[in-house]
Amino acid sequence: MKVVKFGGSSVASAEQYKKVAEIILADKERKAVIVSAPGKRFDGDQKTTDLLIELAESINNGKTDQAVMAKVLDRYNEIISELHLDSSLIQTIKGRLEELISLYKEDEERLLDALKSSGEDNNAKVMTAYLLSLGHQASYISPKEAGVIVTDEPGNAQILPEAYERIAELRNREGILVIPGFFGYSYQGNIVTFPRGGSDITGSIIAAGLNAVEYENFTDVDSVYCVSPKMVKNPRELKEITYREMRELAYSGFSVFHDEALQPVFQKGIPVRVKNTNRPEAEGTRIVLKRELKGQTVIGIASDNDFCSLNITKYLMNRELGFGRRLLTILEDEGISYEHTPSGIDNMSIILRSHQLVNGKEERVLQRIKEELDVDDINIERKLAMIMVVGEGMKEAVGVAAKAAQALAESRSNIKMINQGSSEVSMMFGVDEESVTRAVNCLYNAYFPSTEKAIH
Amino acid sequence: MKVVKFGGSSVASAEQYKKVAEIILADKERKAVIVSAPGKRFDGDQKTTDLLIELAESINNGKTDQAVMAKVLDRYNEIISELHLDSSLIQTIKGRLEELISLYKEDEERLLDALKSSGEDNNAKVMTAYLLSLGHQASYISPKEAGVIVTDEPGNAQILPEAYERIAELRNREGILVIPGFFGYSYQGNIVTFPRGGSDITGSIIAAGLNAVEYENFTDVDSVYCVSPKMVKNPRELKEITYREMRELAYSGFSVFHDEALQPVFQKGIPVRVKNTNRPEAEGTRIVLKRELKGQTVIGIASDNDFCSLNITKYLMNRELGFGRRLLTILEDEGISYEHTPSGIDNMSIILRSHQLVNGKEERVLQRIKEELDVDDINIERKLAMIMVVGEGMKEAVGVAAKAAQALAESRSNIKMINQGSSEVSMMFGVDEESVTRAVNCLYNAYFPSTEKAIH
Fold this sequence. Notes:
alpha/beta; about 35% helix; AceGlu_kinase-like_sf (chains A, B); Carbamate kinase; six-stranded antiparallel sheet; 14 helices; 2 domains; kinase (chains A, B); disordered C terminus; VC0802-like
């Protein structure tokens, strides 16, 4: 049994619906289908979810925006009519929206969750109707019926452990099960949306609950690439990657879907396959617990901007027991989370994401460190980029660092930071933002020479 | 005015005394002379200081070891007679020793300090007598008279700030001033020895107090080398090195004298020159505040063994605010000081010196981290060596890391840790102890190709 999830662009129009149905029906194993809300049909189009958020805000501001309401309904109407489905469906959707509004209009957060999630919910109903219209056995299963039991905090649903047993019972259901992504139900009976990962997390949870043989995640790219196509032209496709590699890469802005969404399947060791709704014949990328290394030490390169470094100097710092702890306590007081703390003998640096140092926090933190730790000098270095070189084969290989450092030297990037020693599967380099594209391209050429064949 | 310090081997015998006198008299600027206790005259010889410690222990155990007492007196007697000095001097020394013993025999720690320091004290008296016998104006100045005022904790003297003004007054004294190293006097009138650096720290303090133009430190090597001769055959000599470079190198077992001994001259920016008593014509090594880089990015390579790494894994660690602080708090509780804490996304390592994890501490720390921080996995990696590559020119240079990593790859060393990002003048690599010699030699060959000329 496979769980299949379709992203927003895969279910944005009637035309896409047809592709999706073909995909579902092409494999009897595809039993549970998770759908997102209708996404963009073209550049500049609005996602249904964004329209629904607009709608909720208008209501919370005291006046329902009928124009936006109409736009929302149009999205479904277009699909329903083009697929010649029973037009009464649109009435059901309209009725449900009005029901949610009257139900929650007094509660800003609950209303937002309810309307946001309706994008997926109604799309699941339409998809079910379409599959039925094609003469197949299919049923809409609400997250409540499916057993997706979550915590009750609006916009921050966490799945509850007992949910998985409930979900397992779906195995006995006949036909194709269509489940809306992005939300669950709390014991209090509330609709609660997930904080991250949207429909991906639902798919992952259902796959874990059903103990699926594979979790297929259909999106609009042929595969996961070894480096972002925004950084390198036509980068190599990845046929197989481990959860760990995926997660390390996801850390630095490299993400087909949010890495935390993988946790449920990750814990059960269920393989994930990323595929393209528009090119289902493409093999896609498998995300697995373990993979054969095939001599490939580095599998991917990711990078992220907007880091900064607090550089602290104090003579005999390394003989001062408790210095590091006191420094981190100040950061904790200020609610600042740091990424790395490279330390020398008389100096220590704190690498963190710059957006945390706003509204006078920077001045306050520098001041506190200067005074409370009596440091000789403290300065802040801005506009740093972190580059992550990732691969399960790195731990044992000799010369990986040399190759990377060599490539960075060729890119004329001044290495501000090197972090290796903790993670077994990654190495991190800090460089100036202005040199990051150059650096990533040189690293790519070093680890993925064009002469080599693709990894498979 | 220069301050000249002579190490134990430089004042171990009459023959060495002659060299020392020649050196002092060769330069009128050499005004203040700091002497150590007579050191080893040949391999397997005993240092006077060690004899004196033995003597103190015998007394503390209730019975003065006359044989050891005799050995101590013989050391001075040999020098006095061979230099044809007034034989009554030995009586003075004997008398002083007996005086100290009766004075402190009730107080174990004070007695140890008093006897230990008498090695330098008596040697200063003999040196003064010798200079006088050669017809030069010279006087013995006790640390009390010199104004070396220190804190009162036995064996852990810390210089007091007001000492420097007192010492400055020595500028007005006529002739050569001979001052014993290694100890000072507390306001309570006690003899207190320095915890580290022995006579070097005294020399450094006197040089700072007198605001000397140079602090000459005479020992038995021609110069400081860019790498330990124990690791590399005939390594290159260093003509000039900065305090910072010296300190970074000293951290990993690379040390002509204890780096903290330099602090007083360091703060005044007084240059230090390391010279060889047995080859005074050799230029030696200057330790300065600033030096011209002359295109040399790396100036030295040091290494030290016996490190270990605690490797901790916990899923989503990097989103757990306060994790690092709580981890360091546990180490602090246990009185463990760490060197570095490289961190990944779901993992963090603590690099520390292994000797700290004895007497069940290792088990307790691992247990506490496992339980109190609820980590997924923790393991300890032993027998790690740290290699420090140092040079003021490194910060700005591109490709330094590449060269180092390349050299380590050639040495077939698996790099366990790379630490760069905090110190501007060093880069640190962690490798297995078994590969450290190979690694250091490859690094040496990379940064100091034999074709190049010496650094000067």
